[in-house]
Write a structure and sequence with these properties.
Elements lengths: L2 H14 L6 H16 L6 H12 L8 H7 L6 H8 L2 H15 L3 H16 L34 H19 L1
Length: 175
């Protein structure tokens, strides 16, 4: 999904997370969840688009999904950082660090929610850009789902319906 849907899912997951009796702990846990839902996109996505803008000599708002699909694999090192932050190995190492620091895995819950949103909604023509859940340990590529609908392009409504379904599943799991 896009950063907006990850922000929204972070807010909903935080709202559905049981409240800790200690207000400071409760706030920390919810900040960790929210951070996890957006963290994989923050460091690399804007840098990938900036690099594509320079490579293609286009302004960022003028870049299209086709520009991304055809050229993002060349946006080193940002595409590799993006793939690493979207992989389960990163979530595993983050969980070890989070357990050591806080004794819980709230950040990792957000990371996993982010990944579960992205897998079915990030299908590209260029196979190397599709989600790689085990990167960098294994270069296997997730190859199912709908094309990534950034902006208001082809699959935007289907993507948001998928997002809505996932939110309903989150809500249903609460009861």
């Amino acid at each position: 999904m896009d950063i907006g849907s990850h922000l929204l899912s972070g807010v909903v997951i935080c709202m559905l997370t049981p409240t800790d009796p200690d207000p400071a702990t409760d706030l920390r846990n919810k900040i960790l969840i929210f951070t996890g839902t957006i963290l994989p996109d923050i460091p690399a996505v804007s840098l990938i688009w900036r690099k594509l803008s320079k490579m293609l000599k286009k302004s960022i708002p003028d870049l299209t999904l086709e520009d991304y699909d055809g050229n993002a694999a060349k946006a080193s090192p940002w595409i590799q950082i993006y793939q690493f932050l979207h992989g389960l190995p990163f979530a595993f190492f983050a969980s070890i660090a989070e357990i050591a620091l806080f004794g819980n895995v709230y950040l990792v819950r957000g990371l996993l929610a982010h990944q579960l949103y992205d897998w079915p909604t990030h299908k590209f023509k260029t196979r190397d850009l599709n989600p790689k859940p085990f990167y960098p340990l294994w270069n296997w590529t997730w190859k199912w789902g709908i094309p990534c609908p950034w902006g208001f392009q082809d699959y935007f409504i289907l993507s948001w319906l998928t997002h809505g379904l996932m939110m309903l599943l989150i809500l249903a799991s609460r009861n």
